[in-house]
């Protein structure tokens, strides 16, 4: 069962990259959340397979995605 986690993780990563490349602020923000979901999926799969470099990489990428989400929010026009 755990071996199947890599497929939704891969799909989420691709979808997130597509969304983050959008010029629309809301799509970019959603893309960062999807990236965070993919980070969690990759971490789960990496722990299952003892792929510790992948786990560390995903933690680092999750921090970058949180930074991107914060910067994306800072660029949003005030209401």
Describe the 3D structure.
Helices cover 81% and strands 0% of the residues. By secondary structure, the chain is mainly α. It has one domain (2-75). Helix 1 packs antiparallel against helix 2 (25-49) and helix 2 packs antiparallel against helix 3 (52-75). The longest helix is centred in the middle third of the chain and has 25 residues, at 25-49. The radius of gyration is 14 Å and the shape is elongated. It starts with 5 loop residues before the first helix and ends with a helix.
Tally the structural domains.
1
Helix content: over 70%
Strand content: under 5%
Q: How is the main sheet built?
A: none
What can be said about this structure in brief?
With 79 residues, this protein is mainly α. It is 81% helix and 0% strand.
Features:
79 residues; mainly alpha; 3 helices; 0% strand
Topology (SSEs and partners):
Elements: H1 6-20, H2 25-49, H3 52-75
Helix pairs in contact: 1-2, 2-3
């Amino acid at each position: 069962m755990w071996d199947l986690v890599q497929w939704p993780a891969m799909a989420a990563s691709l979808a997130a990259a597509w969304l983050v490349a959008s010029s629309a602020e809301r799509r970019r923000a959603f893309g960062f959340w999807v990236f965070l979901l993919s980070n969690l999926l990759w971490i789960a799969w990496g722990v299952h397979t003892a792929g510790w470099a992948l786990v560390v990489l995903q933690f680092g990428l999750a921090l970058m995605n949180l930074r991107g989400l914060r910067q994306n929010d800072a660029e949003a026009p005030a209401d």
